[in-house]
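User: Fold this; tokens only.

Assistant: Input:
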Amino acid sequence: QVQLVESGGGLVQAGGSLRLSCAASRTIFGIVFMGWYRQAPGKQRELVAAMTSSETTSYAEPVKGRFSISRDNAKNTVYLQMNSLKPEDTAVYYCSVQVQSWRLIDYWGQGTQVTVSS
């Protein structure tokens, strides 16, 4: 079993920056996909940044040019650098890792709150 633990959330003023971290409890083999999602109150969870096993990245339109996903294999950690934050970025942010084992397995973190004040 793998545990993912997010950290780095908090309260920031509009225009500020935060870096979220997602640390895995052990080295994960067979990663297909890593992603950062967010869920604002009353809204569905949405994918905001993704990275494939070949490190191809993609971003949701609202965060393009402001957010950046990266990984540090030595630390078993995935990051989300968030710049030029806006009040509409306020949400709980979750990381997810999809692994190809004998079947596809999705692991999720517990979420970290990001609040952007205007």
